[in-house]
Amino acid sequence: MGVRASGTVVWIVEKGNSRWKIGVFLEGEIIDTIHLDPEEDLCLGHLPPGQVDGVLLAGSGHWDTAIAEMLRKRSKGGVTEIKHGDPHPLETEVEDPGSLGTDRVANAFAVQSGVIQGLEQSKVWMIVDVGTCVTTDVVRDGRHLGGSISPGLSMRIKAMRRGTAALPGVEKEVWAKLKPFKGETIGKTTQDAIIKGAADGISAEIIGRWRILSEQVGGEEVVGVILTGGDSALLELGRVMPKFADSNLTLKGYYAIFSHIQLSSKI
Fold first, then answer.
1. Contacts of 70 by beta carbon, 8 Å cutoff, 6+ apart
2. Is residue 151's pLDDT more than 90?
3. Which residue from 75, 109, 129, 144 has the least number of CB within 10 angstroms?
4. CA–CA separation, 256 and 261 (whole Å)
5. Residue 34 in 3-state DSSP?
6. CA nearest 70: which of 83, 85, 57, 53?
């Protein structure tokens, strides 16, 4: 964003397990995103130009005080930080709300606070975030019930390499280009078999969980699925309906949390 937009501008700066992400919001609408390469640390050159009205620094990853200070110099409204274990506004039934990863909190709060479109299709939603891990979170009638955590695609492929004597490793640059979740489940080479085994396992896991949830908590409602996360674009979930993808769901959830905090501080 080369020129300072007219209106209130907020940065959501997220530190995930492996990479930084920045969402630029203008009057509550996301207008730009910046994704750093994995393991690349955030520096001044990554930030959009100009001063902003507020910054939320959040995530399950770790950052030092220098990062917060760098952002503080660019924000007229200061920097709000949310780390793992901090209090959050998500209404949840999990036994220890502080144990939830901040990305899961943000995803569920995006649904709970109604900041995304399409939620009128169902009262029960399963949010699937496909990244380092595959997390699912269930929100029914606006309340977070809990969820699940399993290994992501890279973790599954690396585990096969480390746990066997003969299977080769497969770099992400290879499997990301092949887009394995497109319906062809039979691999013709060892490499293809590894990729499809890991990929189809995730796809089948999500579909199976959706079916079980439809029986257990759906009732008369069909459970909807929301996909997000860096590898979610590769998923093929067949006849799962309703479903839609939102690559910026987590950032939108963080913005909703930021707005909630700002509003609460004025009461």
1. 42, 43, 44, 47
2. yes
3. 75
4. 9
5. strand
6. 57
Give Cα 15 to chain centroid, integer Å: 11
Predicted local confidence at residue 27, as pLDDT: 93
Q: Could you tell me the CA-to-CA distances from 137 to 57, 76, 151, 197, 232 in Å, in that order?
A: 22, 35, 15, 24, 15
Confidence of residue 175 (pLDDT cuts 50, 70, 90): confident
35, pLDDT greater than 80: yes
> What φ, ψ does residue 145 adopt, rounded to 5°?
-95, -25
Expressed in angstroms, the distance from the first to the final Cα of the chain is: 33
Phi then psi for residue 216, to 5 deg, are -85, -40
Hey, which residues are catalytic here? Answer: 103
And the tokens for 27? 């009057």
Q: Which of 157, 182, 179, 178 is nearest to 168 (CA)?
A: 157
